[in-house]
Structure formats: structure tokens, C-alpha cells
């Protein structure tokens, strides 16, 4: 059964690659120059292929629970993921072939529209082939190679997510006001999604690199991932930085207004689903409530989680859009877990709560990981959710408490506690009016608040802590624990602390090296108009990458309006925010 499904799906993907081949374009219109046949013929072929994909998906789905052999189950699951990817890619190509020449913001792209689309299509083609290669490799491993199997499974998921984001890029370009995913700020959207694809590809390569084997397939897959990441980085360079971040008069996609109207009415009493441990709701499990939400919905799905301590590991999958989760308060609704790398898990899989679906909003609840400091990396909350908001929430842990893995995120009036790198990730994130509290960890260990993961200069990725209160617990101070604002996880790590109150518990040096001289001349760490006993910058590090910001125009680049294009999408959430300084 496994061999049959493997052969069928890979053969089918090879057949589909003729549709995915990148078009050869000139600077003329997309339709006139990108196709070797009339657009109507091309569209008809695509529609036929889409129909076949859907039929094959239905056939393969019959075998989803047909065997107890984990290899067969994994094979069927991977096949369905591949078919879903095929269906999406063909629909994107169909939209591109039928859409008139793109009426996008002329300031958004540095290159002609059709050249940019060709580059994205080329990347989709490469990601499709890469996904097929990973699926093929996953079927060839032995039953006892669970670690390798998990790595390949993670890579398939990351590639599938990347395909989604590349599709959003095309959709936002071709139908900027009808898209179900964009904000109307094309520059921010494109830079976010393309940067996110690179993070996914890098994460996949790191998973391969951590494996013990070093066979030819692993080396070949790693090289191809690096090539695709380079292609995406080249495509990203075609997008201008945002020039209209403060323009609140721009037209916005229809779904944002729809979400705004729905969220105005959203409350506990009108929730779509209620979770209660005492059985007074529709569900006693948060996961079951999440699973009941529709897929890819442009409308909010409100889940009210009543007070109680929920000991479960929650995953909001990437197809669960616009989930709104409301609790009874930070100290009333608590989601708890204790997974850690000490249990043999990767950091990414240690999270108590993991959200991947775009547009997530969390309010009035706590996410915690109770694994102690001796368990090392142990994530309480992980987010890959683009345009996500956490409001009046608490994140409790020790090392790696809050993993802002990817995309645009906003944290308002939250409380975040931890020890080492307890706010970290590759995301583009603003923390506003938050309490950031360093606590006592292992003896003789320093505390570092942030570890931002921008890996290359061209990527869209940074942390901004604005109007926050940064403190150290009395226990940590009494134990003489040195606490720093951050250290550079990746070479171009970017973090700005501005208009915040910094307590005396923060080291006068402010920032800590990761290892030796690594990244000290390429990182960007800035401080602007902070107050408090720990805000004195006279004894700060003298690295080339550290900056005492004196120009308000520079600081403006790290505000909600500019860093995460908040004026485009935050009004639709109903969450209060400050757009500028």
C-alpha cells in the first residue's frame, strides 16, 4: 500500500510540474507574454488538473485509517498534504492567468509586476519539488528511525506552510482588495510572508543538520533548501520597504471590515464555543473547541474558556484562521504544561500552547510551562500566527518562555516572566505596555530577556519593546543574578527598547554577547528615551551594533505603525494600541 501511494503521488507531482514551471516573462503584460498558449487554453488545462487532484485526494483519503502500520498512516497523511499543496498551487496559477495585469501599488515593487510574479511562481515550483523529495525520503527510512521520521515530518509541514505564504503573496498582488489574507499594506504583507518562508526553509535545514546521519540524500536536500532560500531572498529584495505605514485612509480588504464588525459584537455570552472543566460548556477540552472551528474562515470564531487550570497541550493548526480565545483573567484561566528539551523534544515541540493559524487573538488568560530551569528550553507559548494579538495575557516559564517564531505579532498589557532568552524568535513583534519580569533560575546563570533571530539583513524581522516595565524579581536580585536586555541569537539580531522603564536589576552593560565576537558588528540593538534606575546608557556595551537612539525618526521605524503595519489591521481587532511614539 505504501509503495503504491508513494508511486502514485510522486508520479502525479511530476505530471503537475509542467503547470508549475516558471513563466518566461518580459516587461510587458503578464497574460500576453507569460504563456505559450492562449490564456483560455491554459486556464482550461489548469481546471482539468485541479479536478484530477481533487479526485485523487478523495481516493487517497479512503486509506487514512485503513492500516495500523505507522508507515502506511504517515504515507497517506503526507500524500494528502502533497495533494493539498498541488490543489493550492494550481489555483494560484489559475488566478494569475485569469487576472488582468496587476493593479498594485507602483511603489511596492522595485521590478516590473510580471517579473516579480514569475519569481514567486518559480519558487512555488521549487517548493513543490522539494516537498515531493521529502515525502519520498520519509518512506525510505526504517521503523526505528523515529528521530529522522519526525524531522522529515516537520519539514513537510514547514514546506506546506511556505507554499501557503507564497500563495498569499500572489493572491494579495492579484486581488489586493478581495484577498482573505492581506492587510492592504502590500509592502508589509509581501515582506512578512517572504521572510517567513525563509525562516521555514532555514528551520527545515536545521532539523536536517541536527540529524546524526550524513548520507547523500540529506546533503542533497540541504543544498536544495539553501538554493530555494536564496531564491526567496532574491524575490524579497524586489519589494520596497513600506512607505505608507501611517496612511489610515488606504483601502483595506473586505475581510478586515467583516472581522471588525464581528469583533465589536464578540463577547463571552455570544461565543461560538464554550470550554469549561465543570461541564457547563460545550467542551471540557480547549483542543476540541479549536477543532470545531471552521477552516480558513475570514470571520472570527470566538472560544470562551472559563476559569480553571487546563492541563493540555493546545495546537491551533495553520488552517484555523481568526480564532479569538477569551478567558476569565490572567489568574483565572490558565493553560499549563511541562514539556522540555530534557524530555527529548525539540524546543519547537515543547510549547504548552502553539498557534499557527493566522489572525489569532488571545485575551485574559495565562500560558505557562512549569518545567523548572534545570529542564532548560521549555516553551509556554509559541506563535507562527501572522497578524496575531495577545491582550492582557500572562506567559510564565523559565528558559524560552515565549517563542515568537514567525510573522507579525502584537502583545498589549501582557506579563512575561522567565530566565534565559525568555522572549525569542524570528518574528516581527511589538510589545506595548507589557510587564517583563526576569526571575531566579539556576545558580551561576545569567538572565537574558530577549534573543531575536534575524538571520540576514534583507529579512523583515525585529523586536520592539515600547512603554514596557522591565524588572527583576527580588529573589533574583538577592541571588546576584546578572540580567541583560538581550543577546544575539542570530547574526542580524534586531531589538529596540524605547520609552520603557528599566529597573536597577538590569546590568549596567545592558546587553550580553552570544559567544565571543559573534554578531557584535552586524546586530542592531537600540535604546530610546527609557527611564528608571537601569536606563542609564553611560556604561552600556561599546559594540558597533549598539545604538543610543537620539533621532525620533529612527525610533518611529520600530513603532506599531511602521514595524508591523498596525494601522492596516489592528483596528479590525478592537484591541487598543498606540500607533507611534
Automatic annotation (TrEMBL):
SUPFAM superfamilies (UniProt xref): Pectin lyase-like (SSF51126), Plant invertase/pectin methylesterase inhibitor (SSF101148)
Domain of life: Eukaryota
Any one Gene Ontology BP term: pectin catabolic process
Keyword tags: Aspartyl esterase, Cell wall, Cell wall biogenesis/degradation, Hydrolase, Secreted, Signal
Keyword Cell wall biogenesis/degradation among UniProt keywords: yes
UniProt main location, coarse: secreted
InterPro entries from the UniProt entry: Invertase/methylesterase_inhib, Pectin_lyas_fold, Pectin_lyase_fold/virulence, Pectinesterase_Asp_AS, Pectinesterase_cat, Pectinesterase_inhib_dom, Pectinesterase_Tyr_AS
Signal peptide extent: 1-26
Keyword Cell wall biogenesis/degradation belongs to the record: yes
Entry's localization field: Secreted, Cell wall
Metabolic or biological pathway, per its Swiss-Prot or TrEMBL entry: Glycan metabolism; pectin degradation; 2-dehydro-3-deoxy-D-gluconate from pectin: step 1/5
Catalytic activity, reaction form: [(1->4)-alpha-D-galacturonosyl methyl ester](n) + n H2O = [(1->4)-alpha-D-galacturonosyl](n) + n methanol + n H(+)
EC number annotated for this UniProt entry: 3.1.1.11
Catalytic residues, chain numbering: 421
Domain Pectinesterase inhibitor residue range list: 85-238
GO molecular function term, any single one: enzyme inhibitor activity
Family: In the N-terminal section; belongs to the PMEI family.
Function: Acts in the modification of cell walls via demethylesterification of cell wall pectin.
Name under which the protein is recorded: Pectinesterase
Organism the protein comes from: Oldenlandia corymbosa var. corymbosa
Native organism taxonomy: Eukaryota, Viridiplantae, Streptophyta, Embryophyta, Tracheophyta
Amino acid at each position: 500500500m505504501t509503495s503504491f501511494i508513494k508511486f502514485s503521488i510522486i508520479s502525479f507531482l511530476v505530471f503537475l510540474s509542467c503547470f508549475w514551471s516558471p513563466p518566461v516573462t518580459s516587461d510587458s503584460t503578464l497574460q500576453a507574454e507569460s504563456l505559450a498558449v492562449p490564456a483560455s487554453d491554459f486556464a482550461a488545462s489548469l481546471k482539468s488538473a485541479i479536478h484530477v487532484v481533487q479526485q485523487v485526494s478523495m481516493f487517497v483519503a479512503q486509506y487514512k485509517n485503513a492500516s495500523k502500520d505507522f508507515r502506511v498512516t504517515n504515507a497517506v497523511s503526507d500524500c494528502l498534504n502533497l495533494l493539498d499543496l498541488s490543489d493550492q498551487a494550481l489555483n494560484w496559477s489559475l488566478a494569475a492567468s485569469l487576472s488582468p495585469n496587476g493593479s498594485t501599488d507602483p511603489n511596492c515593487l522595485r521590478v516590473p509586476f510580471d517579473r516579480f510574479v514569475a519569481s514567486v511562481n518559480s519558487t512555488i515550483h521549487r517548493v513543490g519539488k522539494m516537498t515531493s523529495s521529502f515525502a519520498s525520503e520519509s518512506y525510505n527510512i526504517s521503523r526505528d528511525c523515529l528521530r529522522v521520521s519526525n524531522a522529515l515530518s516537520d519539514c513537510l509541514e514547514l514546506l506546506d506552510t511556505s507554499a501557503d505564504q507564497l500563495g498569499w503573496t500572489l493572491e494579495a498582488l492579484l486581488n489586493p482588495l478581495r484577498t482573505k489574507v492581506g492587510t492592504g499594506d502590500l509592502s508589509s504583507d509581501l515582506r512578512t510572508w517572504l521572510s517567513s518562508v525563509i525562516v521555514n526553509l532555514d528551520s527545515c535545514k536545521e532539523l536536517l543538520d541536527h540529524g546524526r546521519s550524513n548520507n547523500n540524500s540529506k546533503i542533497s536536500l540541504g543544498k536544495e533548501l539553501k538554493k530555494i532560500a536564496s531564491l526567496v531572498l532574491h524575490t524579497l529584495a524586489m519589494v520596497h520597504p513600506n512607505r505608507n505605514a501611517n496612511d489610515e485612509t488606504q483601502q483595506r480588504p473586505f475581510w478586515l471590515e467583516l472581522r471588525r464588525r464581528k469583533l465589536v459584537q464578540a463577547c463571552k455570552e455570544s461565543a461560538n464555543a464554550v470550554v469549561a472543566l465543570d461541564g457547563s460548556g460545550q467542551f471540557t477540552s480547549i483542543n476540541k473547541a479549536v477543532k470545531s472551528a471552521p477552516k480558513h474562515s475570514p470571520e472570527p470564531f470566538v472560544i470562551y474558556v472559563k476559569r480553571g487550570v487546563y492541563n493540555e497541550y493546545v495546537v491551533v493548526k495553520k488552517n484555523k484562521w481568526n480564532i479569538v480565545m477569551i478567558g476569565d483573567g490572567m489568574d483565572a484561566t490558565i493553560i499549563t504544561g511541562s514539556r522540555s528539551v530534557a524530555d527529548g523534544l525539540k524546543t519547537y515541540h515543547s510549547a504548552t500552547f502553539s498557534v499557527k493559524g493566522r489572525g489569532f487573538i488571545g485575551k485574559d488568560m495565562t500560558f505557562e510551562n512549569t518545567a523548572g530551569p534545570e529542564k532548560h528550553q521549555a516553551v509556554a507559548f509559541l506563535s507562527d500566527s501572522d497578524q496575531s494579538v495577545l491582550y492582557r495575557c500572562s506567559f510564565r516559564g523559565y528558559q524560552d518562555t515565549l517563542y515568537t517564531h514567525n510573522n507579525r505579532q502584537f502583545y498589549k498589557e501582557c506579563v512575561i516572566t522567565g530566565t534565559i532568552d525568555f522572549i525569542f524568535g524570528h518574528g516581527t513583534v511589538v510589545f506595548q505596555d507589557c510587564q517583563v519580569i526576569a526571575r531566579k533560575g539556576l545558580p551561576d546563570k545569567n538572565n537574558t530577556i530577549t534573543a531575536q533571530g534575524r538571520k540576514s539583513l534583507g529579512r523583515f524581522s525585529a523586536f520592539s519593546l515600547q512603554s514596557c516595565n522591565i524588572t527583576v524579581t527580588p529573589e533574583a536580585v538577592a541571588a546576584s543574578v546578572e540580567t541583560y536586555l538581550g543577546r544575539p541569537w542570530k547574526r542580524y539580531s534586531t531589538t529596540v527598547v524605547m520609552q520603557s522603564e528599566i529597573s536597577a536589576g538590569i546590568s549596567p552593560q545592558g546587553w550580553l554577547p552570544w559567544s565571543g565576537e559573534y554578531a557584535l558588528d552586524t546586530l542592531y540593538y537600540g535604546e530610546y528615551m527609557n527611564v528608571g534606575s537601569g536606563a542609564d546608557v553611560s556604561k552600556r556595551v561599546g559594540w558597533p551594533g549598539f545604538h543610543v537612539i537620539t533621532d525620533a525618526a529612527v525610533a518611529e521605524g520600530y513603532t506599531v505603525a511602521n514595524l508591523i503595519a498596525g494601522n492596516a489591521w489592528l483596528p479590525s481587532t478592537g484591541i487598543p494600541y498606540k500607533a507611534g511614539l
